[in-house]
Amino acid sequence: MSTTTKIGQILQAIVEVPQQVIRYISTGAARAFTPSNDNYPATGVQPYEGDPPEQKHF
């Protein structure tokens, strides 16, 4: 391998590595901020029907 080829590969790596990092981060951000694909049934608002608190006797 000649010196020119090595320098060319180093310069190419200097350009490609930041592009790969930006692509990696932007892909994750795109996944985080896109609408979800959850297929939940359209049930509307459901009231909370929890257990009433126990009555304490003093």
Automatic annotation (TrEMBL):
Chain positions covered by the region annotation Disordered: 32-58
Domain of life: Bacteria
Name this polypeptide is given: Menaquinone-specific isochorismate synthase
Organism of origin: Tolypothrix tenuis PCC 7101
